[in-house]
C-alpha cells in the first residue's frame, strides 16, 4: 500500500495533517512561488522538484450547467496540442513517435492530432494506439477492439483494448516517444486514464519517453466527490486505476504527474518510475473554475454514450446507481445518463420519491420513456440547477436505496461476479454491505459525510499535482 493510500485511510483530521506535511513538505501557510502553467512543457524526470504555492483559485460561477460564459475570444483555451504546435513541435521534433488518441483528440479548431503530427515538420509519426472504443471511438463499451491499419494514414493501429491493454515491447519498437492525447471526463471509472497509466508503465520499462498533451477536466478542477478507491480494489482494476475519489478534479496531465511522482500509483519498480521520462504539455488559458462550456471548445464525443456535456455531467450521477438492479438510464437512448426509469414504477412515483430526498442541486422532471414491452411510459430527467450545491455522485446512492424498495433487495441476490464488477467501480465495499444489511433503510447521508471528509483531505493533498490555479 502506498504512503498516499495509507494516509487517506486514517481518521480525517489526522490524515489531513499528515498529508499536508508529507505532500507539501511544510506548513500549509508557508508562502511559496506560483507554479507557472504557461510553460510550453513540463519535464518530470530526476530533476529536483520546484516549490509550489498553497494554491488560490477563483470560485466556480453559480450559472446552471448549460450556460456558457461570455468571452471575446471564441477559443479562450489553448489545448496541449495547440501549445505544442505554437511551440513549433519542439518537444517532439526529430523523434519517432507513437500516438495514443481517439476521435476527441483534436485541436481547438477541430483538426485531428493524428493529422497535425503526421504533417508536422521534423516529426516522424510511426504508429497509432487506440484505447477502449478504438481509435475511431465507435466500438461499444467493454467490447474488444482488434489492431488494424488506419486507412487514412496507412499507419499501424495497436489496440490497447484487446488481448493486451498494456503495450508490449514489440508494440513500442521503433519509437522514441509516446504522445498521449486523450479527453477524459473527470470520473475515475472512465477508462482512458487507465490506458494512459498502463502506457506510462510500459514506456518507462522500455526507455520510451511519454509526452502528455493536456486537456480540460470538463467538470472543472474544483469538483471532488464520492468514495475513494480502497487499496484492495486497486489491483488490476481497469475502472479504478488511480487512488482518487470517484470525481477527482484533476486534468489528465495532472493525473500523469501523480503517476510519475507518487510511489505506488504505477505498478512498476520504484527505480523504473524514477528513471522514467515524462513531459506534460500544459494548456494555456484554462483555470480550475472552468467547466467545459466555459472553454469555448466544441465537445467531440469521447465514446458512443458520451455524446455531449449533458452526458458528461450525468455519467458520475447515475452510472453506479444503475449498475445493479432494474434502474435504467437513457429513456430510449435519447438522454444517456440523464433520463431514468424503472419498469416497476411510474415516472410520477419515481419523481415523487426522488423529490422527497431533497438532493441538493438537482431537479427532476417527467419525460416520455418506453417500457420494456415497447408500450409508452414515463421516466424522469435529471437537471442540475445549482452547480455549487451539486454533489456529482449523490444521486447514485439514492437510486440504490430505491432499488431495494422497488424489488427484492438486488444487492443480496446479484451473483458475486457482478458484485465484484460493481465494487471495482465503487472502489469501496462499505456501502454495499450496508445495502445488503439495511436495504432501503440505509443512511446515505452518514456515508456522504464520511466521504466528504476524506475528499477534503484528498483535495488538499492533490494540490501537489496541480498545474493550474
TrEMBL record:
GO molecular function, one term: peptidoglycan beta-N-acetylmuramidase activity
Database matches in InterPro entries: NamZ (IPR008302), NamZ_C (IPR048503), NamZ_N (IPR048502)
PROSITE patterns the record matches: PROKAR_LIPOPROTEIN
Domain Peptidoglycan beta-N-acetylmuramidase NamZ C-terminal intervals: 314-468
Domain Peptidoglycan beta-N-acetylmuramidase NamZ N-terminal: start-end pairs: 97-308
Renumbered residue ranges of the record's region Disordered: 38-69
PANTHER family: HYPOTHETICAL 460 KDA PROTEIN IN FEUA-SIGW INTERGENIC REGION [PRECURSOR], PEPTIDOGLYCAN BETA-N-ACETYLMURAMIDASE NAMZ
Protein's name in the database: DUF1343 domain-containing protein
Source organism per UniProt: mine drainage metagenome
Amino acid at each position: 500500500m502506498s504512503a498516499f493510500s495509507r494516509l487517506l485511510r486514517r481518521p480525517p483530521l489526522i490524515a489531513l495533517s499528515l498529508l499536508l506535511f508529507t505532500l507539501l513538505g511544510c506548513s500549509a501557510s508557508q508562502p511559496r512561488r506560483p507554479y507557472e502553467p504557461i510553460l510550453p512543457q513540463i519535464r518530470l524526470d530526476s530533476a529536483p522538484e520546484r516549490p509550489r504555492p498553497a494554491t488560490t483559485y477563483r470560485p466556480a460561477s453559480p450559472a446552471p450547467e448549460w450556460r456558457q460564459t461570455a468571452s471575446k475570444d471564441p477559443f479562450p483555451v489553448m489545448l496541449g496540442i495547440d501549445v505544442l504546435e505554437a511551440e513549433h513541435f519542439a518537444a517532439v521534433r526529430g523523434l519517432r513517435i507513437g500516438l495514443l488518441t481517439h476521435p476527441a483528440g483534436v485541436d481547438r479548431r477541430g483538426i485531428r492530432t493524428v493529422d497535425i503530427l503526421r504533417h508536422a515538420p521534423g516529426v516522424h509519426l510511426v504508429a497509432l494506439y487506440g484505447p477502449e472504443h478504438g481509435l475511431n471511438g465507435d466500438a461499444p463499451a467493454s467490447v474488444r477492439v482488434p489492431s488494424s491499419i488506419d486507412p487514412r494514414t496507412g499507419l499501424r493501429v495497436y489496440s490497447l483494448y484487446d488481448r493486451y491493454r498494456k503495450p508490449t515491447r514489440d508494440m513500442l519498437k521503433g519509437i522514441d516517444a509516446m504522445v498521449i492525447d486523450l479527453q477524459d471526463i473527470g470520473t475515475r471509472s472512465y477508462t482512458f486514464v487507465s490506458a494512459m497509466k498502463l502506457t506510462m508503465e510500459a514506456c518507462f520499462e522500455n526507455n520510451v519517453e511519454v509526452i502528455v498533451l493536456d486537456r480540460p477536466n470538463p467538470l472543472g478542477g474544483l469538483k471532488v466527490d464520492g468514495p475513494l478507491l480502497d487499496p484492495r480494489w486497486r489491483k488490476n482494476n481497469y475502472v479504478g486505476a488511480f487512488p482518487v475519489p470517484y470525481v477527482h478534479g484533476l486534468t489528465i496531465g495532472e493525473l500523469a504527474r501523480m503517476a510519475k511522482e507518487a510511489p505506488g500509483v504505477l505498478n512498476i519498480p520504484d527505480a523504473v518510475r524514477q528513471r522514467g521520462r515524462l513531459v506534460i504539455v500544459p494548456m494555456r488559458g484554462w483555470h480550475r473554475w472552468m467547466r467545459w462550456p466555459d472553454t469555448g471548445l466544441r465537445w467531440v464525443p469521447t465514446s458512443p454514450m458520451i455524446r455531449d456535456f449533458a452526458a458528461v455531467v450525468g455519467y458520475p450521477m447515475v452510472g453506479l446507481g444503475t449498475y445493479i438492479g432494474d434502474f435504467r438510464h437513457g429513456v430510449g437512448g435519447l438522454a444517456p445518463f440523464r433520463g431514468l426509469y424503472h419498469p416497476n414504477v411510474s415516472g410520477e412515483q419515481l419523481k415523487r420519491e426522488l423529490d422527497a430526498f431533497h438532493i441538493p442541486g438537482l431537479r427532476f422532471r417527467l419525460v416520455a420513456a418506453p417500457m420494456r414491452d415497447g408500450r409508452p411510459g414515463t421516466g424522469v430527467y435529471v437537471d442540475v440547477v445549482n452547480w455549487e450545491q451539486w454533489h456529482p455522485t449523490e444521486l447514485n446512492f439514492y437510486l440504490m436505496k430505491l432499488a431495494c424498495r422497488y424489488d427484492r433487495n438486488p444487492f443480496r441476490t446479484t451473483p458475486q461476479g457482478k458484485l465484484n464488477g460493481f465494487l471495482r467501480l465503487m472502489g469501496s465495499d462499505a456501502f454495499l454491505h450496508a445495502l445488503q444489511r439495511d436495504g432501503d433503510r440505509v443512511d446515505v447521508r452518514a456515508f456522504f459525510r464520511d466521504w466528504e471528509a476524506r475528499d477534503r483531505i484528498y483535495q488538499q493533498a492533490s494540490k501537489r499535482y496541480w498545474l493550474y490555479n
